[in-house]
Amino acid sequence: MRYFEDFDPGDEFEFGNYTVTEEEIIRFAEQFDPQSFHLDSVAAKESIFGGLIASGMHTLSILMRMTVDGFLNQVAGLGSPGIDEAKWLVPVRPGDTLSVHLTVLATVPSRSRPERGVLKLSTDVLNQNGEVVAVQKGLVMVGRRPA
User: Is 0.90 surpassed by the pTM of this model?
Assistant: First the structure.
């Protein structure tokens, strides 16, 4: 288990290996983002994207899963007070395999709760070609090492 004291600004982590399928893109879009370029491969070919793409929120959901599996499950995490920024840079398409590059930007001890601190993180989602498809910057609360 890693605690707040185990992190320093500049620490980097790489994890994840998730291949996105056409079926899950459509299933997610049907429930949460029913735009034609997420739902219908024929209509998507006529869109500005030239083919079916994953919803940006789907991409962030995949990022969350990879972050839990590859990082947060090994950290004394206490939740997140929020996301400061999310950007989609390159469309995610069926067959893309995604991975994560996470960088600790800052470590901020809590002044009101000495048993925890906050990590400021920058997270890049990359496809199999090494292209950054999405960026997220946010915060995670982490417990301090017990006495």
Answer: yes
